[in-house]
Amino acid sequence: MHGVLLSLALCMQPPVGDDAHTFEALVEQADAARDEGQHADAANLHLDAFDKLPPDQQVGLIGEIALDNAIDSVNRAQAQPQGDEVRLRLAQTLAAALRAREAAALSDAADPPPQRWREVLETLEAEEAKRQAAEAHEPRAVLLTPPDEGRGDHEAAQRGARAGMASGLLLTAGGVGLIASGVATRVRVDGIADERRLQPGHGLSTADVAAYDAALDDWQANGRLTSTVMIAGGATATVAGVALAAWSGMRLRRHKRAEFSWVPVAGPTQAGLTLRVRHR
């Protein structure tokens, strides 16, 4: 019926200008979408067609029929995807059309807007207000546990534990390296002493050889003492590094413990509890 009325209106007052063919094409597309049951698409196409009309025709019969067609399609599109979006668009278009029609009626350029438009607009605005109120009352989690006032302390403890582990590992590596250096020093000192030790019969007297060997023994003893100190220091550093890394690791695990709490979930249509897990 609306299609027939719109065809008659087009005959009486056809659109003018470059948008004439576009308007007619949009109306045909809207009728095709309606016939296929795509009412949300049909409504958008009717609103597109209305927007193509010049202002003087939007407040006239063609504009009125185009908006009525959009209203009819919107009512059929409630359960379809994009139904909410096209309803919001229709409300915005209707509000602007009512203002334009009222202004035109004051100058006798058009009839007053039909009362049904106001009723449709009021319905759409009430539905939008209800939807926004429902979104504002969506379920939210309410924490049973108080705010974690010690969170900063835990984070500082974690940073300290990580630094301790790094220091322990470095100390261990240094200790192992010092032990290796001490052993290498002992081997080198003994090797040099053996190479330089003289035997009687090389043109030297027994007393000279004894004096030389005594000096060499003193040098070897000092070298061995140095290597012993290095090995002992390395062993001490290694033990201390392992202990520091282990203690820091235990601190880090202790400050990363998981906390569990029950969180109530409340909403306009549901209520219950959910388990909240937090790692610190």
Write a structural description.
It is a single chain. With 280 residues, the protein is mainly alpha-helical. It is built from 9 helices and 3 strands; from the N terminus they run H-H-H-H-H-H-H-E-H-H-E-E. The chain has helices spanning 2-12, 19-35, 39-52, 55-58, 61-76, 83-106, 115-136, 151-196, 206-254; strands at residues 140-141, 258-266, 271-279. The chain has a 3-stranded antiparallel sheet with strand order 1-2-3, with no helix packed on it. A hairpin with a 4-residue loop joins strand 2 and strand 3 (271-279). Helix 2 (19-35) runs antiparallel to helix 3. It is rod-shaped and about 145 Å long. Residues 4-12 and 141-149 have low confidence and may be disordered.
Ordered list of secondary-structure elements with their pairings:
Elements: H1 2-12, H2 19-35, H3 39-52, H4 55-58, H5 61-76, H6 83-106, H7 115-136, E1 140-141, H8 151-196, H9 206-254, E2 258-266, E3 271-279
Antiparallel strand pairs: 1-2, 2-3
Principal-axis shape equals rod-shaped
The number of helical elements comes to 9
Unreliable spans: 4-12, 141-149
Q: What's the number of extended β-strand segments?
A: 3
The separation of the N and C termini measures 68 Å
Structural class comes to mainly alpha
Mean pLDDT: 77
| Residues in helices, as a percent range | over 70%
Spatial order of strands in the largest sheet: 1-2-3
Any idea what the radius of gyration is?
47 Å
Order of SSEs, N→C?
HHHHHHHEHHEE
